[in-house]
Amino acid sequence: MPRRLALVGFAVACVASVAVTAIAAEGVPMTATGMPVAQDPIYDARPGITLPQVVHEVKPDYTRAAMDAKIQGSVWMDVVIDQAGDVTNVAVKRSLDDQFGLDAKAVEAAYQWKFKPGSKDGKPVSVRVTIEMTFTLK
To answer: For residue range 95-113, what is the model confidence (pLDDT) as tens digits?
Structure first.
């Protein structure tokens, strides 16, 4: 009986793995031959790369629970500014609070920012930068 349970568990794990792979592949653009389309490179700050400049900034909202807990500080996020100046690929680098919702509010605000895109050789490129959102109670 234990061997049968192990085989069933293995089969379920294999099916789950295939399903996750299929779902992940759906979002990848393909060429007519079925090969993945090359994505535009994402550049880090370095010589030859002009950094994006903030055009429109949105301040994050406080949650009631975070105010009641008197939480203050900063959330640091790695983000990619794409060729259109939009924020994509937000990832919290240094958390302030994942219990009362301030990290989530910072991410929500970051997606609303607008930038003049970074450039390389005079052409817009996607650039990875760090954004800091500060929460201060008055």
So the answer is: 998 899 999 999 999 999 9
pTM: 0.71
Q: Which amino acid, one-letter code, is at 3?
A: R
User: How much is the pLDDT for 34?
Assistant: 54
What whole-number distance in Å separates Cα of residue 134 and Cα of residue 80?
Answer: 19
Cα–Cα–Cα angle for 18, 24, 29, rounded to 5 degrees: 130
Residue type present at position 129: V
Mode of pairing for the β-strands spanning 53-56 and 73-81? unpaired
* Burial group, residue 135, by CB count within 10 angstroms (0-12, 13-18, 19+): buried
